[in-house]
Specification:
By secondary structure, the protein is mainly α. It is built from 8 helices and 2 strands, in the order βααααβαααα.
Length: 181
């Protein structure tokens, strides 16, 4: 006799985007081009995943138009690994939602940190979403996506303003320690 667990969708799409906006999160219209592209890619991937087509042509076309053809595979790998290994459902709203979700802010912080080769801030930003083992698995494709964006001159603003407190202190306190999960 086998016991099967019900499948839990790891991406939560907001049902009523405008009603859910409230006062939380930055407005998408206020984002810079690089941030908007990253948010578009995450939201488009989540929306396509919801209908069973997370590797759809729209995402590949968008990356090609942004001169990021080499970054599409790392991005897709990152999103697949993140949602598979997340501690909870990752909140990535529908594409037309006007404000960023807190999980999107964390992902933007991680991308911005990796564009500046600051893995400590990226890990700290992802810590509420991912266990350490998953974080180690997703950092290589996320870094490839971040560097691809940087090479295409899509540079996110520095993450210092939104980086979790004590991100650098974690490394300085335990320079040789890495948790094995």
């Amino acid at each position: 006799m086998s016991i099967t667990r019900p499948r839990v969708d790891a991406v939560r799409l907001a049902a009523a985007p405008e009603a859910a906006d409230g006062d939380a999160g930055r407005r998408v219209e206020a984002l810079r081009t690089a941030e908007r592209f990253a948010v578009w890619a995450m939201r488009e991937w989540a929306a396509r995943r919801r209908v069973g087509d997370p590797r759809g042509g729209v995402i590949r076309d968008g990356f090609r138009y942004a001169s990021l053809s080499g970054a599409v595979s790392p991005f897709l790998a990152f999103m697949d690994r993140m949602t598979a290994g997340a501690r909870r459902a990752v909140d990535i709203p529908e594409p037309h939602r006007a404000r960023l979700a807190s999980d999107e802010e964390a992902l933007l912080t991680a991308v911005a940190a990796l564009q500046r080769d600051d893995e400590d801030v990226a890990r700290a930003a992802l810590a509420p979403l991912l266990p350490p083992a998953t974080s180690r698995l997703i950092l290589p494709p996320l870094a490839a996506f971040a560097l691809g964006m940087a090479e295409a001159r899509l540079i996110l603003p520095p993450p210092s303003a939104c980086a979790p407190p004590g991100a650098r202190a974690l490394r300085l306190a335990n320079p040789g320690i890495a948790l094995v999960h």
